[in-house]
From TrEMBL:
One of its GO terms (molecular function) is transmembrane monodehydroascorbate reductase activity. Keywords: Electron transport, Heme, Iron, Membrane, Metal-binding, Transmembrane, Transmembrane helix, Transport. It comes from Prunus dulcis (Almond). This is Cytochrome b561/ferric reductase transmembrane protein family. Pfam families: Cytochrom_B561. It is a multi-pass membrane protein. InterPro entries: CYB561D1/2, Cyt_b561/ferric_Rdtase_TM. One of its GO terms (cellular component) is membrane. The chain crosses the membrane at residues 12-31, 43-62, 74-93, 105-128, 140-159. It is found in: Membrane. Residues 1-167 form the Cytochrome b561 domain. Its main location: membrane. It comes from the Eukaryota.
Length: 211
């Protein structure tokens, strides 16, 4: 029983706790990739491997464990398995870029995928707690390692999200040289010379009065 619980946990972690977050990172790094590219193929294989491993974990739990569905871990797991296959089917019907259905498809696919990843991470924590209760073994180390992994992926995602902006800032700041006071005065003088001369307000008023 303990070995089955361990294998089930490893399958669930590798599918929903590792491959799915990595897939999200790849999507973020290749938002403009289209079908047929290397990154698109890698992303497809990662998604399919994740779905197959999650399915294997689900089959193992249904065959070897008591499934009364009276706890959060089992209920979340059942909902996740259904959502994963719905997400996979949605992925096969992706419209090509330029079609008006693409925006709606992208929104649904993105929201469902994000929800699956978040709920999957939460369910791994509930699974670690269930592992501790069932086997009476400490799950503190695994919880700590998984938290470190999720934190690293989250930080990397945020950095990746701002990478282009950070790179542009570095280029701009690297090309700028400090401006001295004399150079600043010259720039101001040049700006004054380029500005058109504004007519005097009093002169215009008198001119309009006597015209």
């Amino acid at each position: 029983m303990t070995s089955n619980v361990t294998v089930h946990g490893l399958l669930s972690w590798f599918s929903m706790g590792f491959l799915m977050p990595v897939g999200i990172l790849i999507i973020r790094m290749s938002v403009r990739e289209e079908r047929g590219t290397t990154r698109a193929r890698v992303l497809f294989y990662l998604h399919m491997l994740s779905v197959l491993l999650a399915t294997a974990g689900a089959v193992m739990s249904l065959r070897n464990f008591e499934n009364s569905f009276n706890n959060h871990h089992q209920r979340l797991g059942l909902a996740l398995y259904g959502a994963i296959w719905v997400q996979a089917l949605i992925g096969f019907f992706r419209p090509h870029r330029g079609k008006k259905e693409r925006s709606f498809w992208y929104m649904v696919h993105w929201m469902l995928g994000t929800l699956i990843s978040l709920v999957g991470i939460i369910n791994i924590y509930t699974g670690l707690n269930a592992y501790h209760k069932r086997t009476q073994r400490s799950s503190g180390l695994w919880t700590l390692l998984f938290t470190a992994e999720v934190s690293f992926i989250a930080v990397y995602y945020l950095i990746q999200d701002k990478r282009e902006y950070i790179q542009k800032q570095g280029v701009i700041l690297g090309n700028l040289e400090p401006i001295t006071q004399d150079q600043e005065n010259v720039q101001r003088q040049n700006q004054k010379e380029l500005l058109p001369q504004q007519p005097c307000g009093k002169h215009n008023a008198l001119k309009n009065l006597f015209d």
